[in-house]
Structures are given as C-alpha cells and as structure tokens.
C-alpha cells in the first residue's frame, strides 16, 4: 500500500480580500517526483510556502508524513521536509562547506556541536551533489549553476524525507538545467526522497515526473500523468493558448515547442 508523504485537503489561502489558493486538494505518494505547473501568479509558490509554514493562516488541512502540519514546530518540520526557494542571496560570508553544514541544525540540540557523524553526512552529500571540488570557496564566487547545486546539497544534508523546490533550474543555461534534473533524479532514486518541484517548463514536468499538477487561479485544474498533460485541450485550459507538439527523437515522448499553433 502506498503511503502519502503529503496530503492537502481543501486548502485555501488569502491575503486580505485577495484569494490566492482556493480549495486545493491532492496527495503525493512517498518517493514520487511531482511537478507543479501553471501560469504566473496562479499560487504555486504560495502553496510551497504554506507547506513549509513560511505562510500561515490557511484554511483546510495539510498532512506531512502522516502528521498534521499544524502540530510541527519548525525544527521538527525541517526533519520532515526541506525547501529550496527560487532564489537566495549568495553574498553571505560563508564557504560552501559551512553553508551545507548549517543545514544539519534540525538534528542538533541547542548546546550540541558538529560531530563526526555530521561531518560524514556533509562530506557524502558534497560528493553526491558534486560540490566537494569547491567546498572551500565563498558562496559569492559561485556561478548560478554552482550555487543552485549547493542549495540542493544543503537540502539533502538536512536529511528530510521530502524536498520542495521552487523553480530549481530558473535562470540556468541548458547544460546546468540538465545537471540539476540529473541530480534531482539521483536524489529521488538513491535517497528515496519525495520531490515536489514548481516549474514553468512543461517539457521538464512531463519527462521527469511521476505526476503533474496544474494550478490556475489558485485551483487545481489538472492532476495526472505527464504524458496526459500533453494535450492541447488540457493545456489551453491551463494557459489559454494552443501549443505545437513534436515527438522526442529517442523516446517518442510528446513535447511542446515555441510558436503559434495554426488556427
């Protein structure tokens, strides 16, 4: 029987009179890779921030690892899930190793110090994420792709069962986008980590996810397999435009390409 890593039931969230999320419901099974797509301003990032308790005051129920989200304190929640935001400042005065080591805080008591087990976990994480070769560099000296890899490495070192990512490949070139996707696949496979990624890339969502969830105007308008979202009727409902499709030359997977579909 599959267990739910995350269960969201009739979740709504508003800022003042502006409703951002409206009756959102879906479940994420343990070890799944889920992509959340949708237009700008549809509520995708807001949903991730509710899951990480950055935003509070939502209505409805959220369960994380079989436990109601409201019952977690922030340190307990950090052991259950890790959050990689869309962007983070890299001008803080830390080296890569120091930054990743700080992600061990959920496992430390107030007066404990870093021990050999923490060192081992951080070293293994840096090897897995290929960040060990610049471990002693300052964050400010890293390229965009290197810094995003470090952010993900910190989340892995946190040893959470669930990884939330907000546009993990945003602003990266194609090479680094591919490297990030390969890394996330390794984390999912080798660490048995459930991953939930917000993305604007429909092709990435369809190719690298067990399921795709589309949110529009704060509501779930699609929840299904990646191959099933590649349908003009569904995509037009989400994005209010038609798409041109091609087949992947090796897999036959249907992909979308830029351009105006013929009328």
Describe this structure in words.
The protein has a six-stranded mixed beta sheet with strand order 6-7-8-3-9-10, with helices on both faces. The protein has a four-stranded antiparallel beta sheet with strand order 2-1-4-5, covered by helices on one side. It has one domain (4-257): P-loop containing nucleotide triphosphate hydrolases (Rossmann fold). It is built from nine helices and twelve strands. A hairpin with a 6-residue loop joins strand 11 and strand 12. Helix 3 (96-102) packs parallel to helix 5, helix 4 (116-129) packs across helix 5 and helix 5 packs parallel to helix 6 (174-190). With 263 residues, the protein is α/β, with parallel strands linked by helices. The protein is 33% helix and 27% strand.
Question: SS-based structural class?
Answer: alpha/beta
Query: How large is the radius of gyration?
Result: 19 Å
SSE pattern, N- to C-terminal: EEEHEEHEHHHEHEHEEHHEE
Total number of β-strand segments? 12
With helices defined by DSSP (H or I, 4 residues minimum), what is the helix count?
9
Shape: globular
- Poorly predicted segments: none
CATH hierarchy, class: Alpha Beta
Give a quick precis of the structure:
The protein is α/β, with parallel strands linked by helices and 263 residues long. It has helices spanning 44-51, 74-80, 96-102, 116-129, 144-157, 174-190, 202-208, 226-229, 232-239; strands at residues 4-15, 18-29, 33-37, 59-64, 67-68, 81-84, 162-166, 194-198, 211-216, 219-224, 244-247, 254-257.
